[in-house]
Amino acid sequence: MRMIVDHISYTYKENKKPTIQDVSFEIKEKEILTIIGQTGSGKSTLIQQMNGLLRPDTGTIYYHGKDVFDKDYHLRDLRSKVGLVFQYPEYQLFESDVFSDVCFGPKNQGMSKKQAELKAFAALRMVGVPEELFYVSPFELSGGQKRRVAIAGVLAMEPEILILDEPAAGLDPQGRKELLSMLVKLKEEKNMSIVLVSHSMDDVAEYAERVMVLRDGKIAYLDTPKNVFSHKEELEAMGLSVPQITHLMYSVRAAGGMVDVNCHTIAEAKEAILKLYGRG
Ligand SMILES: Nc1ncnc2c1ncn2[C@@H]1O[C@H](COP(=O)(O)OP(=O)(O)O)[C@@H](O)[C@H]1O
Ligand SMILES: [Mg+2]
Questions:
Q1: pTM for the predicted model, two decimal places
Q2: How far apart are the CA of 249 and the centre of ligand 1, in A?
Q3: How confident is the model at residue 277 (pLDDT cuts 50, 70, 90)?
Q4: Atom 27, ligand 1: which residue's CA is nearest?
Q5: What lines the ligand 1 site, CB under 6 Å?
Q6: Which of 61, 105, 137, 251 has its CA 20 to 30 A from that of 153?
Q7: Which ligand is nearest to the CA of 238?
């Protein structure tokens, strides 16, 4: 267990109502955990607590068994191991060229110039930014490339847990697919734990090992996508949805096709449809 979030609650000073209410969960090695929930349900607040940017009012967070809010714990250590990629991270690119931008994080961690450059090089390769783009201004890149560079800036610090707030938002379908495949690769090859705030139920079904549903700052569900998406009505009542393909299977069923409606990926739906024809 890499991280244990232990009964945390948090209320912004300006608000009366708590934004996070008694939330507990854990992050395992090598998993993709997605967080879904309506706007205002507390997703962005929760992830900022996970790298110590916001301190919970009650409860705490353990990282490798150590209480990160203990007075002897250096939050700087946590932040280098738990990398947070904000929504639209490309707005945080500011150096004159791509490579310098990615070097910024590791240098800030106290690495030598040479070391930082090695990490930056590896990170840019990992996210698939070609070398001919290393020395151009980040502002000359496409949206998808900027997003990759911004993610590389966090990866260069070699986090064990990578947290991303809606990383695929605003990307075209191709960019989106490439980004998500890259996250799967990081999980597989680097044993990374990936925490992904997402609005796309299709992506959640396809890529996540577990999914957390937040409702008014509380965990409504925390389970496999299969189990969570079997609560179609409850999710819809929360203003959420199920994957597109699940809607399709419900329509087929309503029209008299005796398919299993509990399908959430194209692969599952294919099997269910073939079964209907006795070919499954
Ligand atoms: N900096 C802030 N100051 C005061 N209230 C905030 C702040 N950030 C978020 N909130 C409030 O906390 C609640 C949860 O917000 P947020 O964590 O951004 O949710 P989500 O990311 O799920 O949309 C909302 O009601 C929002 O208005
Ligand atoms: Mg948010």
A1: 0.94
A2: 35
A3: confident
A4: 40
A5: 12, 14-15, 19, 37, 39-45
A6: 61
A7: 1
β-strand pairing of 58-63 with 32-36: unpaired
Domain residues for the domain of 116 are: 3-225
Nearest ligand by distance to the CA of 36: 1
**Closest ligand 1 atom to 214 CA:** 22
Asked if the structure places residue 93 within a domain, the reply is: yes
Is position 180 within any domain?
Answer: yes
Q: Is residue 242 a part of any domain in this protein?
A: no
**Domains identified in the chain, total number:** 1
Name the more confident of 280 and 266.
266
- What is the three-class DSSP state of 40? coil
Q: Is 30 helix (H, G, I), strand (E, B) or coil?
A: coil
Least confident span in 86-95, 178-187, 234-243: 86-95
The domain spanning residue 101 has which CATH number? 3.40.50.300
- Going from the C-alpha of 81 to that of each of 19, 34, 57, 245, the distances in angstroms are 25, 19, 23, 36
pLDDT above 70 as % of the chain: 100
Residue 102, helix vs strand vs coil: helix
Cβ atoms of residues 9 and 55 within 8 Å: no
pLDDT digits (tens, 9 = 90+) for 88-145: 888 888 899 999 999 999 998 899 999 999 999 999 999 989 999 999 999 999 888 9
Residue 140 placed within a domain: yes
Q: Ligand 1, residues 10, 45, 57, 238: which to mutate, most atoms within 8 A of Cβ?
A: 45
**CA gyration radius, the chain:** 20
Whether the CB-CB separation of 265 and 207 falls below 8 Å is answered with no
Are 58 and 52 a contacting pair, CB within 8 Å? no
